[in-house]
TrEMBL record:
It catalyses: 3',5'-cyclic UMP + H2O = UMP + H(+); 3',5'-cyclic CMP + H2O = CMP + H(+). This is DNA internalization-related competence protein ComEC/Rec2. It is a multi-pass membrane protein. PANTHER family: DNA INTERNALIZATION/COMPETENCE PROTEIN COMEC/REC2, RECOMBINATION PROTEIN 2. The chain crosses the membrane at residues 247-269, 281-303, 342-364, 376-398, 404-428, 435-453, 473-490, 502-519. Counteracts the endogenous Pycsar antiviral defense system. Phosphodiesterase that enables metal-dependent hydrolysis of host cyclic nucleotide Pycsar defense signals such as cCMP and cUMP. Residues 534-745 form the Metallo-beta-lactamase domain. Gene3D superfamilies: Ribonuclease Z/Hydroxyacylglutathione hydrolase-like (3.60.15.10). Its main location: membrane. GO terms for biological process: establishment of competence for transformation. It is found in: Cell membrane. It comes from Brevibacillus thermoruber. InterPro entries: ComA-like_MBL, ComEC_N, Competence_ComEC/Rec2, Competence_DNA_uptake, DUF4131, Metallo-B-lactamas, RibonucZ/Hydroxyglut_hydro.
Amino acid sequence: MTVFTASLAAVCGLLTGAYLQAAWLALLAAAASAVCPLLPRPHRKRILCHALICILAGLYFQGYDYLHRSTLLPMAEDGETIVVAGVIDSPVKRDGDTARLFLSVETWGKNGRQMDGMAAAERIALRVRLSREPEAREAERWMQGSRLSATVRLSLPSPARNPHAFDYARYLRWQGVRVTAEAEYGDIRVEPAESGVMMLFRRWQTEAADRIALLFPDQEAAGYMQSLLLGITDGVSPETEEMYDNLGLSHVLAISGLHVTLVSGMFVWSVERAGMPRRPALALTMVLLAGYVLIVGAGASAVRAGIMGAIGLLCQAGARQAEGRDVWGWALLLMLGYNPYYLWHLGFQLSFGVTLGLIVLVPVGRRFFTRGPEWLRTSLAVTFAAQAVSFPFLIYHFHQFSPLSWLVNLLAVPLLSMVVLPAGYLALLLGLIHPALAVLPVRLASALLRWLHGPLFWLEELAVPFSHWPHPQWWWIAVYALFLAALPVLWRRGYHRPRDRWLYAALFLFLLAAARQPFADGDEVRITFLDVGQGDSIVVEVGKKKVYLIDAGGTPRYPARESWRERRDPFEVGKDVVLPFLRARGIERIDHVVMTHGDHDHIGGMAALVPRFAFGSVLVNGTPPREEEAAILERFRARRVPVLTGRPGQTWTDVPGVEWTWLHPDGDSAHTGNDASVVLRLTAYGTTVLFTGDIERAGEEQLLSRSLPSPVDVLKVAHHGSSTSSSPALLAAAKPQAAVISAGRNNRYGHPSPVVVKRLMDTGADVYRTDLQGAVTLVIRKGSVHWQTQITDI
């Protein structure tokens, strides 16, 4: 048994402990005891040891999880307001008129006069509302480690409300947080943190960030270098972050093994040139590494790199050969022993996954690529290993991976890591002596960033196919992982003849093709009523043939009264809800966009989608467009997308058994606004669905007099369930068996109207509501209809 295999067994045990009850662990222990005597004697002890590590790790997770249970959870379920006091347990992030932080609560009470101590400190996510600019400036000075007391209103974090969307509740769960809280600035008292080691490193990090801002006159370059050198990402523009994400370069901005290798190598070289013996130099470098990891924020990738670097230095000091996989295993065991929740952190997964890939796959890759100089073959091997291992993580969490990522990483990463990064550290060190000494490295780094980012932004704008990937299935992840694990084993056993290499390449390409899920959902129509808050957005997928987007929601826009209130990257429903869903479905082309009418809550999100997809056509109601609608249509026309309208009775067929009918309006209609909404009827394999936009009573009367000859199976309820729509006459004619209402939680309009909900239920319809159930999905197949809701417990 090696440290590497023991660490893998521990990971299996943690996963088992997280998802199975203790009784299952006992059953696994009994099964291992029963099976071991039947195994060959040479393998018996090793298998038993690994099974024991697995079971102990599972029990350790369950014990750790029990000790971190929430005391405040029952009060959060009732939305109670209490007084809490504790220690700020994270850097404070101020964005506009909101400050966010983690608070380690030590005492609480119904009022400030009598406080009860916690059995163990509980971490909560606190959101502080700021009303004046001086409050914002003061919040920016709050430091991790400061004591804070406040009157807060507790709540539960929101789960994902759309398929494969970011799950805030799950994210907080693995941060050790079960409860969220909100407070006003006036209800908070903060005491400066006591001086200590952690505060000293936080202060050094802040001072280094300020020095970078002083040395780099360009604000964008300064923010980038703060992220590259110190792991502070607040200064990177949202556009640059998105570009790096889309091109697969986001790992560049994370503190990693490259940073640790560069810093430790420079330090060892310097102190040895100053006359220090080798062993003391290595020992001093290990101390430096610990301080460096703390200065850059002690993120998962930085801690992992620091531990592995320290173990490597320790082995050098003892003149021992360090096996890369065992060093990796020690780092994994130490971090998971400290906090097993790390296993569910994306940064932890990527850092350890890519590092292991580099350790085991780069030697294979250097021999796989047989032609070219050594440096080129090494670069190709490193790029392949990093991209191949990160691929499943990226498509699982973000559903995007650009084919350009392979080439961009091969060309851009060496330039950023071997020139820009050292130039940045050199500028920072020389700037400590005098800012004038840092002029040359600052100019070099700034010029290279400008030269590099221009082409990268141009590449991002290209409509590159196979950039959006559907959410991977569990069996695909297992097979892909098995392939990557088996490749170095087979290579070491001699299976590296030319035909073997062709077979490996073919299998890899087959797995990439399988990740696209080309044969899934072939004979079905999938209709997803997205939860976009107070608005409408519906995605209709006709097998793998056609995609319709009926509206795209819209976030209400309230211009900030003061500049300090402006958010760095404000929430926008098209960018933050509709786009991620389309990516999660692997959609890159939208065949038909239907803009039912020009209200912002239906078309506002469309602007974020226009540059990111290919389009077949845009269907509109034919009335003169208002300002926002006209601007969006102009953007479609600039991309040569035809803008069309229809007439009542017009039909078209996507595939046999799937037919659309335009019901309303007609070109001569005098209706405007909501009553001019596009109304479509979809007949799919015998099931009829009526999409009504925001049509109101007058429009319904015209629809009834002309275009609604028969009942429907599913009704998309008009105007979010407003009392001005869904008249008794319409419901009597439609006789829906099911109805879907798209409305925002706790919206100020009171939608849906209780009268309309009762009216629908009186017709015998099953009512689905996005405000209560999140996204609602209807899957229609030949002979079956299946409903899915994102949130089942209402």
